[in-house]
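Weekly modeling sync, notes
Attendees: S.R. (lead), two postdocs, one rotation student

Agenda item 3: backlog of single-chain predictions. S.R. asked that every request posted to the team notebook include the full sequence so nobody has to chase files. The rotation student volunteered to paste the first one in as an example of the format we agreed on. Action items at the bottom.

Example entry:
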Amino acid sequence: MMKNNKVLWMFISTIILIVAMSLTGCSKLQTRIILMGESEHWRGEFDTTVTSGREENGEYTILYTKDNWGDIRGYKIDINEGRNKRQEEGGLASNVIKFPITRTKGSQVSSNEDQTIVIEWKDLNGNNFEEKLTLKEK
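Predicted structure, as returned to the notebook:
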């Protein structure tokens, strides 16, 4: 009688394990992507989470690395040849520029491929500057 209970217990345990594994397989697969890069005046980071390869929620963080960030009087950021753009005519409120990236079903989500950022900006005297940085997987 004890042997039958042991066999029954093993059978039930196996069934429970199979059900648990199949339910886990149905959960949403999430992939976190972090890309970083730096140029002479700027450092960039892209941190995003892609869910099931169809949705995305992340953020670009662009940091001006010099102390004179208050001298900037307008900037333009172009990521991946126009895929994402941002432009401001006024000065910087801090040395960090952040903007979110949210994509839903049907739009192209990010991958861990390198990204190119071109930043153009003006200083107090009206001088124009441009730098390019490449964000790569860390």
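Discussion: group reviewed the output briefly. The two ends are 60 Å apart (CA to CA).
Action items: rotation student to repeat for the remaining queue; S.R. to check formatting next week.
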